């Protein structure tokens, strides 16, 4: 069995998820990256996207927006502004998030902002298709 590490997902309101994790795929601003036990120390800003968490007893997919991840060999802590379990997304919430993301894309001031907004729109459209 693969090693585990301590994982915490925190929003301004509460500790959303905590426990032993085997792997977490993080939507970093420069691309997705996986964190496993023994990971080299890293701090990364996050883009809006899907956080894929493999706990020792379950898998979770969480939609996150605006945050930061800090990892070392024994721990991963993710602080985010917004976190919603993908299983709890209803079609109205997806539509609201998609509308906001499309507005962000239309107003993107530079190529980097446009790319991040396009990625978010694509992910939300995939979630919307699965929810339909």
Structural summary, described in words:
With about 130 residues, the protein is α+β, with helices and mostly antiparallel strands. The protein folds into 2 domains: about 5-85, F0F1 ATP synthase delta/epsilon subunit, N-terminal (ATP Synthase, domain 1, Sandwich); about 90-130. It has 2 helices and 7 strands. The chain has helices at about 90-105, 110-130; strands at about 5-10, 15-30, 30-35, 40-45, 50-55, 60-70, 75-85. Strands 1-2-5-6-7 form a 5-stranded mixed barrel. Strand 2 (about 15-30) and strand 3 (about 30-35) form a beta hairpin. Helix 1 (about 90-105) packs antiparallel against helix 2. The longest helix is centred in the last third of the chain and has 21 residues, at about 110-130. It is globular. The model has no long low-confidence stretch (mean pLDDT about 90).
């Amino acid at each position: 069995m693969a090693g585990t590490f301590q994982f915490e997902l925190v929003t301004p309101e509460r500790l959303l998820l905590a426990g032993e994790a085997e792997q977490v795929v993080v939507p970093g601003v420069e691309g997705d990256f996986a964190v496993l036990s023994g990971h080299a120390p890293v701090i990364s800003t996050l883009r809006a996207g899907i956080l894929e968490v493999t706990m020792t007893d379950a898998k979770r997919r969480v939609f996150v927006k605006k945050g930061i991840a800090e990892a070392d060999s024994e721990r991963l802590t993710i602080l985010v502004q917004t976190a919603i379990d993908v299983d709890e997304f209803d079609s109205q919430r997806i539509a609201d998030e998609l509308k906001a993301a499309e507005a962000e894309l239309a107003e993107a001031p530079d190529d980097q902002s446009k790319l991040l907004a396009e990625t978010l729109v694509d992910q939300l459209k995939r979630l919307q298709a699965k929810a339909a």
